[in-house]
Design goal:
single chain, mainly beta, 2 helices, 12% helix
């Protein structure tokens, strides 16, 4: 693991991504070991899949940072 940390992120709706709406979702606590920086666009895995990295422990996370995105084509 490289410098793991927890991030507070805000999911974006399709409308927010395409620029048609400022709509945003509720904040999530995300485990990140990829090194996402401020303003990065990331892909996440939510629910039980996010907690699998901590199999024997109980960790209060909402999601896992699965990838860093360079761009989104919609």
């Amino acid at each position: 693991m490289r410098n793991p940390r927890f991030l507070v992120v805000v999911p974006m709706s399709r409308e927010a991504i395409t620029g048609g709406s400022p709509g945003r979702g509720e904040e999530l606590v995300v485990f990140d070991e990829l090194g996402a920086g401020r303003g990065a666009i990331i892909g996440i895995s939510e629910g039980g899949e996010a907690a699998n990295a901590f199999w024997s422990e109980r960790v209060p996370i909402d999601a896992y940072c699965a990838c860093l995105l360079d761009r989104i084509n919609v």
